[in-house]
Amino acid sequence: MPDIYGILNVARGALLTQQRAIDVTGHNIANVNTPGYSRQRVNMQTNTPIPFSPGQMGTGVSAVEIQRIYDRFLGAQISNENQNLGRWEAQKGSIEKAEMILDETSGYGLSQAMSEFWNAWQDLSNNPSGHTERTLLKTKSEILANTFNKIYSDLQQIQKDTDVSIKGSIQEINLVTDQIADLNQQISEIELTGQNANDLRDSRDLLLDELSSMIDITTSEGDNGKVTVLVSGGRPLVQGNSSWDLSTETNVSGLQDIVWLDGSGSSANITNSISGGKLKGWIEARDASIPGYLSRLDDLAAIIISEVNTLHQGGFDLNSNSGGAFFTGTSASHIAVNPSIVNDVNLIAASGTPGGVPGDNSAAIAIANLQYAHTMSGGTATFDDYYNSLVSDVGNDVQTASTNFDHQTSMVNHLNNYRESISGVSLDEEMINLIKFQHAYDAAAKLITTVDELLNTVINMV
Description:
Elements: H1 4-30, E1 40-46, E2 61-68, H2 72-101, H3 110-126, H4 131-191, H5 198-214, E3 218-221, E4 227-231, E5 235-239, E6 242-243, E7 246-250, E8 256-261, E9 267-269, H6 277-313, E10 327-328, E11 336-337, H7 339-343, H8 362-368, H9 383-423, H10 427-461
Antiparallel strand pairs: 1-2, 3-4, 4-5, 5-6, 7-8, 8-9, 10-11
Helix pairs in contact: 1-10, 2-4, 2-5, 2-6, 2-9, 3-4, 3-8, 4-5, 4-6, 5-6, 6-8, 6-9
């Protein structure tokens, strides 16, 4: 039956409930700058009323739940977009390095080296017996070969560096999945008691975002609050309290393939089935983009070697002997000037006939004219055209990656801003809540004071 003590109990419940609300508001204010934090609120509910004449009498209020303000669907969208963002970020970073290596704007590159090489042959044709011209040709030829070697080596280094990044990211992924499995356990234990593990869920979602930026994943949450994380082909990375590791193994190319370990000693190669995250971007750069550039550079060097050697071997040196191979090697990584020519420039075959030595220059002219011959791309492009096409394609690849990266950045930023509008802490809003709960607390305290005065009045009546 309602009485003075019932009023006191109502006041007590109101006081404690408003105190809880102030506690949560303070927690929100304290975490205004915490990454991944979702604001919380106290859900209040009226207590069960009691029957009384002339009608039911309320029994006050109680805090039934501390709720985390979070949009699960939006979180899944951010995770998906993070996968694409990570992919283009990694690919852009690797290809931009290749673009720098092939950059001709610095004043010297392969295009300049080729131009000076052909010009040196032209100068030799003007003075076939000139020692100065022959020495200059030897020097420019060595520069051309060294430029091929260095560009090829630098591109290979990018490939190796990308491979190191892939291997390093596997360690990060394993660390994150271990942490997610541990949080699964903690969240489950807390929520089995009927409470919400809000802060732990924020930490887990932050880890899931980090994981999705590294590799494509799909996630689902069970009734027990534990999240399951699957990777390529539906293989689990996290399930309940358990986590599965990824590892690497060296393939026939000497690079690292990514394998999923089933925990029993067996493994599955998932390299080709990875479709998102930084791993996808690095794999594409390492296994497709960079090898493509290397292959085209090899083709250019191989045709130059073949064409120059063919004409040089058909000519005659200053000793009226048939010319030997001008270049050794068959690719960009191995091209070099014939050591015999390096040691004796008189072995350069500038003459077209043995009787034309030393004044005949027909072989030198033929080699110089290779600059304008359509020897590449099935007889449709010159050496310069072919190389410029390679440089242009690298630039286009960078532009594509940059455009996609910028788009994904905008998408992720938009979604994160939208998430902040829902889950983020607004200091203005929290200050309003703080004042509101403070007034309610003061009022509940005033009610207790009033009940105390009523009790004193009753006692004094005795």
